[in-house]
Specification:
Length: 754
């Protein structure tokens, strides 16, 4: 078997869903492909039911096809069950000699001695087992095992979608009557800026109750034929595949199969046949779509499975798109194109869909400015305002709405005076081309002191912009985004591809990877663990990684491989103790050793550093300087934990003060200790791009700032407008004060950050 070739070609498994009309076809194509490419006589897939703790044979190439659906194993039973129970690969030259081997009459597997069972899982979630078998004398090599482990990881995408579709056809409870609310007329809402920009467009409200009402209670004027329904299905399929391709081309790191569920449902014969049967009884096709979709929606809403509940949005989106294609044949059915979307809750995948359909802006009802949704919106250049008026959800679709995401204003049906001001503001905004002309390759203060200006990267699109604006490198790559926007843990191979593209976008420049910062407001919907009363202080960031070392190790390996020839830095988030840092470092060293033994190209000497985000670090900063090679201060979390204030909580947001005397003095001590130990220190939180705080940071000795690409020019101009002497004088004056109002006087304005 050509292991290297298989490693690159296995990605094709991710696209099988597009060609498959049923779960059976999907899995059968998967086992055929794997068997052929691995030269194995047998390839089988067993799916796991966590409720029953049972594995069931769902597809096979090489064994008795009549055994599909009949052969069942308990967790830990047989070599197959053992592989899933222990979450490790089982490889045997002669399987029948192993005491755990279980014989099934009529399966006809006694001809195959060589046996390989690989658990199919995403993180800690057990999904199934991939089993390959060969004849005597054709055992599996270590290279085979490594390549097939990657196959099993990729196959998890297919299994997840298959389980989703199978869940659609379980018995459904009766659904309750859904009531709609009367929308209220609004004129002006003061919100908070999450992602800067302007938009003036008709409103489109996304609200669960409204969507359900639309599906179940909409009246349709015309009566449509079954042929028109078939045409709508074809048109919808083509549209979704085009959108998927567009998103993958634009956001390849974050858009893995964004429309996968839509396409899977649409190609599911059982789902379509249910609609067709209703049409054949005289039900109007759009009504039939609404009724069948409504049944599935109610079932999923009642599910205990978080993943199934998330799929409600997919069914709603698909049903609306299908109905629109049916009743608006030949018209533009991009639902959100040219609209300001008003929504209560959005998943990262939802925001990617809105971007792919060219929505103009988003007004998010509720949520925090520091949430991952807001960060993602900035990467997508999607203007976003967070407003706390739930009456906006009652806004009739099509109502003109103006979003001024420079200052956080939302105008509903604005008058001519407001529109005139809006258009004048648009004219003075600097385009990217204008920014490229103004930005300088080197950033210096007015007295010539150089400052490194790095970029915070969320998606690869940020890296393109940062490179065009001549940043000095990547000071923070938030690796959690490829995890957040997916429905499963990305494999080492998937991460390697993403990370490689980032490194390639910054030739010769430092690239800093922050390891997975999951938890808090960065929720992984597919990671099912105990509910935490206070997730911000729970199992998150480096604690999560050290608790789930296989996931951590895969990520570190991918980073090391991607940065083989780069100026590579790896930093650990939310470090609270020397012990944690040393444990994380040990995982990196183990990964380096493992890659070396495997002969895989990698970076053997990355710089290892840490985020400074917790107060516990301050008292040990000199000790940390003896271990870590660099520091990056994440001011958002640092301020939050230093002051015990949740910035996203409106009732206490006024207490979130970057210029609090304790915060300023702690920052000064950290920078002083780092510089004294000749350790690099940078600031990557919001303070790094806020004009009122940049002088203080320079004044205490910070010479490296890392900001979102959108803030590169503004930050450079702020730095160029002051001398180091001025900055030091300002910093000393601020550090001498013990009251916030005294510091605000020095700043010259109220210090609450926007």
């Amino acid at each position: 078997m050509d292991s290297e070739q298989l490693l690159y070609e296995v990605n094709e498994l991710n696209h099988l869903f597009r060609e498959s009309a049923s779960v059976e076809t999907l899995l059968n194509k998967a086992v055929e492909m794997v068997a052929n490419r691995t030269h194995s006589a047998v390839c089988s897939v067993y799916l796991y039911d966590p409720a029953e703790r049972m594995l069931t044979l769902r597809a096979t190439r090489g064994l008795n096809p009549e055994s599909v659906g009949k052969v069942r194993l308990g967790l830990g039973q047989g070599l197959t069950g053992l592989a899933l129970q222990e979450m490790k690969t089982v490889c045997e030259k002669d399987a029948s000699r192993n005491p755990n081997y279980k014989f099934f009459p009529g399966l006809f597997e006694e001809r195959f001695d060589a046996f390989l069972a690989l658990p199919i899982a995403r993180g800690i979630s057990k999904m199934g087992v991939l089993v390959l078998q060969r004849s005597t004398g054709e055992s599996f090599t270590d290279a085979d095992v490594k390549a097939l482990e990657t196959v099993a990881s990729q196959l998890a995408h297919i299994i997840e979608n298959a389980q989703f579709l199978m869940g659609m056809h379980e018995p459904r409870p009766e659904h309750p009557e859904v009531r709609t609310t009367v929308p209220a007329q609004l004129k002006f809402i003061k919100g908070r800026v999450a992602s800067e920009g302007f938009a003036y467009a008709p409103a489109m409200v996304i609200d669960k109750q409204k969507s359900l009402s639309f599906l179940l209670h909409r009246e349709f004027e015309g009566h449509y034929s079954i042929e028109q329904f078939d045409e709508a299905v074809t048109r919808t399929t083509d549209q979704l595949e085009e959108l998927q391709e567009r998103v993958e081309n634009k956001l390849s790191d974050a858009a893995s199969l964004i429309f996968a569920a839509h396409l899977m449902i649409l190609k599911d014969k059982a789902f379509l046949n249910k609609i067709v049967r209703r049409i054949e009884t005289g039900v109007n096709p759009p009504v039939a779509v609404a009724e069948v979709s409504g049944e599935f929606i109610q079932t999923f809403l009642a599910s205990d499975n978080a993943y199934m509940r998330e799929k409600v949005n997919d069914i709603e989106d698909l049903a609306i798109r299908l109905v629109n294609n049916l009743i608006s044949a030949g018209e533009d059915t991009q639902v959100y194109r040219g609209h300001v979307v008003v929504a209560r809750d959005l998943f990262p995948s939802d925001l990617l869909k809105l971007s792919s359909e060219e929505a103009s802006a988003v007004v998010l009802v509720g949520g925090g400015v520091t949430s991952h949704i807001a960060i993602l919106a900035r990467s997508l250049a999607m203007p976003m305002v967070i407003a706390d008026s739930f009456d906006l959800l009652g806004l009739p679709d099509g109502t003109p709405i103006l979003v001024d995401a420079q200052i956080g204003n939302v105008f509903v049906d604005p008058d001519d005076n407001v529109l005139e001001k809006f258009h004048s503001q648009q004219k003075v905004r600097l385009s990217l081309e204008e920014q490229k002309k103004l930005i300088q390759p080197q950033t210096r203060t007015s007295d010539g002191v150089p400052v490194q200006l790095l970029a915070n990267i969320n998606l690869l699109t940020d890296a393109v912009l940062a490179a065009e604006l001549q940043c000095n490198g990547v000071g923070l790559y938030r690796t959690e985004f490829p995890f957040i926007v997916r429905t499963t843990f990305p494999s080492e191979a998937e991460q390697f591809v993403i990370y490689s593209r980032l490194v390639q976008s910054m030739p010769g420049k430092p690239v800093t990877f922050r390891t997975l910062d999951a938890g808090g407001d960065k929720i992984l919907s597919y990671y099912h663990d105990v509910q935490e009363q206070n997730p911000a202080m729970g199992m998150r960031s480096i604690r999560f990684s050290l608790q789930n070392r296989p996931i951590f190790r895969e990520q570190v390996r991918a980073i090391l491989r991607a940065g083989a020839d780069a100026d590579l830095r790896i930093m650990f988030p939310m470090i609270s103790s020397i012990d944690e840092f040393c444990q994380a470092r040990e995982v990196v060293l183990e990964s380096i050793d493992g890659l070396s033994r495997q002969g895989i190209a990698h970076n053997g000497k990355p710089k290892l550093g840490m985020m400074v985000e917790l107060p516990s670090v301050v008292e040990l900063i000199e000790d940390f300087a003896a271990e870590a090679e660099f520091f990056s201060i994440g001011t958002n979390d640092f301020i939050q934990f230093m002051l015990g204030v949740d910035r996203t909580n409106d009732s206490v947001a006024d207490f979130y003060l970057p210029h609090h005397p304790s915060v300023l003095r702690a920052l000064s001590r950290i920078v002083r200790a780092a510089n004294g130990s000749k350790r690099e220190v940078s600031v990557c939180g919001d303070m790094a791009h806020e004009p009122q705080y940049v002088p203080f940071l320079l004044g205490i000795g910070v010479r490296t700032l890392s900001v979102d690409p959108a803030y590169l020019l503004r930050t450079q101009q702020t730095i160029a407008g002051m001398s180091i002497r001025q900055a030091e004088a300002m910093a000393q004056a601020m550090l001498a004060q013990s009251r916030t109002h005294e510091i605000e006087t020095i700043l010259g304005e109220p210090g609450t950050m926007v």
